[in-house]
Amino acid sequence: MIKLAAGADLIYSLSKEIPLRTLSQRKSSHAMSESSNKPPVSVTPGQWSFTRWQTIGQLEALEVRHPLFQATIFLQGAHLTHFSPRDQNNWLWLSELARFQPGRSIRGGVPICWPWFGDPARNPPEIRKRVHEPTAHGFARTALWRLEDVRESAHEVEISLSLNANEDFAQLWDGHALALVTFSFSVRGCQIALTTTNLSRQPLAFSQALHTYLPTADITRTRVLGLGNSQYIDTLKDWDYFTQEGPVYFEGETDRIYESGEPLTVVTPMGKRKLTPVGSDSTVVWNPGPVKSARLSDFPGNGWQKMLCVETANAAGDYRVLNEGQSHTLGVLIGRT
C-alpha cells in the first residue's frame, strides 16, 4: 500500500503517482496532466468543448466526444459505461440488454459498489451493523450523483461527481460520508479515483469496489495475469481459502476475492489491458457462467462468454475504517500494456 501524509489522497497519473488535492484546491491547481504547461481547465457547462448532456433511455448522461477518445458517464450511479480511444471499440463491456431507468442499476461498464460490497451478511460485523437492507453492493449504483467539475484540455478530459450519503439514506445505512469520484480520460487510458470522506463523528467502516466489466471474444481463451501465488476466497466453495497457481483461467462460474492489490494484465483474443490499482489490497474476479447468467437481470443468454469482471476493491478483510474527517481513495487506471 502507498502511504501519504495526513490529508493527502492518491490517484494514478498516466505516467507517475501524484497526490490528489481536495476538490476546492483542484479548481485552481490540477494533479494530472499530459502536458505540464497546459493542464485541463475547469469549464462551465455553456463553454464545454468536448462534453455535452445527453438523455439515454430515461437517464441523464455526460457524453465526451474528444478528437482523441470518447466516454459516457451517467449521473445515476456515477456510472461509466463507455470509454474508447479514437478508432477503437469500447474498452468496457456493456450488456446489449442494459436498461437505463431510474432506480435500476446498469448492467456493464463500471458500477460503483459503495458503501458496502457484496452481500451485507458476508461483510465484517462493523459494516454489517450499519446496513438496514439486504441489497448487495450498496446504494451508490442507483443514487443520483451531483456533477462537481468538468476539466478539458487538448489531451484529456476530467469529470468529477459527488454523492453526499447523509440522513436521506438513513433507511438504508447508518453513516454520513461523502463520495467523490473523478474520471480522467486520455488516449492512453481511463483513470477512476473514488475518494470517501467520513463526515460523521464516529469511526466509519465500509467496503467497496469498482466493478469493472471487460469484454472478450471468448472467455475460455481469456486469462488474468498478476495474481499467481495470491491467497483468495472462493465464494462458490463455502468461502474457503485457496492459493492461486499461475494465471486465472475461466471454466464456468467464477467468483473469487483475491488478497492482492497488484497491477494486473487481462489477456483476451482481442488484446491486452493493464489494470493498475491504488488504495486496494483486494481484487475480485467474476464471471457468472451459463447457469447464474440465466438468472441475472439484463444479461443476454451468451453474455457470460463475452465478458469478465476484474474489480479493484476493498473487500472481505481489506475493508477500511475512517475516523472523523479522514479520507481514503480507491482507484484504478485501465490502460494499454
Would you mind describing this structure in some detail?
This protein has 337 residues and is mostly beta strands. It has one domain (47-335): Beta-galactosidase, Chain A, domain 5. Helix content is 4%, strand content 42%. The chain contains 3 helices and 26 strands. Strands 3-9-10-11-12-26-22-21-16-19 form a 10-stranded antiparallel β-sheet, with no helix packed on it. Strands 8, 14, 15, 17, 18, 20, 23 and 24 form an 8-stranded antiparallel β-sheet that branches. The longest helix is centred in the last third of the chain and has 5 residues, at 289-293. The chain starts with 8 loop residues before the first strand and ends with a strand.
In short:
The protein has about 325 residues and is mainly beta. It has helices at about 25, 125-130, 290-295, and strands spanning about 10, 15-20, 40, 50-55, 60-65, 70-75, 80-85, 110-115, 145-150, 155-165, 175-185, 190-200, 205, 210, 215, 225, 230-235, 240-245, 250, 255-260, 265-270, 270-280, 280-285, 305-315, 320, 325-335.
